[in-house]
Specification:
Helix content: 25-40%
Largest sheet: 5 strands, mixed
Shape: globular
Number of strands: 13
Strand content: 5-15%
Distance between the termini: 23 Å
Number of helices: 10
Bound molecules: 4'-deoxy-4'-aminopyridoxal-5'-phosphate
Structural class: alpha/beta
Amino acid sequence: MIKLNTNECPYPPAPGVARLAAGMDCNAIRLYPDSNTASLTCALADYYHVKKEQVFVGVGSDDVLSMAFLTFFNGSLPILFPDVTYSFYDVWAKLYRIPYKTCPLDESWHINPNDYKQPNGGIIFPNPNAPTGLLESLDTVEEIVKANPGVVVIVDEAYIDFGGVSALPLLEKYDNLLIVQTFSKSRAMAGMRIGFCIGNERLIQYLKDVKFSFNSYTINMPSQVIGVEAVRDEAYFKEITGKIIATRERIKNVLRDLKFTFPDSCANFIFASHEAVPAKEIFTKLRERDIYVRYWDKPRISNSVRITIGTDAQMDALTDALREICNNA
Ligand code: PMP
């Protein structure tokens, strides 16, 4: 089975993570974990050169995002996000009864910053976007943040480490910006559930106030210990993200030769459609060969499949299968 459908990392986490996991003192899990996640918060603050009061850690970035929706998106005006984007945003909006409005991406899948200059109760978008993989420039991000001083703008940087430029430097200028990242993709730790956000100290305190009001213990002890080790090993982090980027660029050329088109992804996936074979057929025929990619039967995106970048061997198996499927169509 080749699993290229949930944007996980195809490589193991940092070697120190395996060592720590193997030598874990199980007696320590009798105790509740540190509710402040102090060691991981400090490791992240050091790594990103911010104060520890600017960091909030959660159980995967889904937990952080969900908490941020609950904390910051509670006005009567609709929150704004792109029409084609991470599929959980409208789920949380509906769950928390937050009014929302989607802004259509343009024909080349880019955000039009002017769409985000209307009255709103908050803004969220991923950069790079999912499922397109397209990166918006820091100028575009800044234009949106600057135009909305009265609301919180959340930039979901789940895929930023695969060649994107983080909005972190903008935190010095804007106190309404919240940047969310995850250990699930570039740090190869989806199974540990570690996500975090960085923002102005006041925003982070509000998030903690909401979180502690109903659950004081979220991220578990092993995740905290192992997460610190993952942050420490920058060389390994650079090595695996570099390998994924190199594979992605190589596969773009192969896909082009096979007559696929796609936005120029800056993430660990490619959102591709074929000139002749419908995406649903590609998805089904790959599944028959035990190769899993992601397909949505939704407006605007129903003729594309999202393919996670795996190892070179996995991607060669995928492109061999695609060659067969497309040549026999
Ligand atoms: N944001 C985006 C854009 C994603 O694609 C994902 C992964 N599905 C997440 C957030 C959540 O990732 P996690 O909860 O594993 O950190």
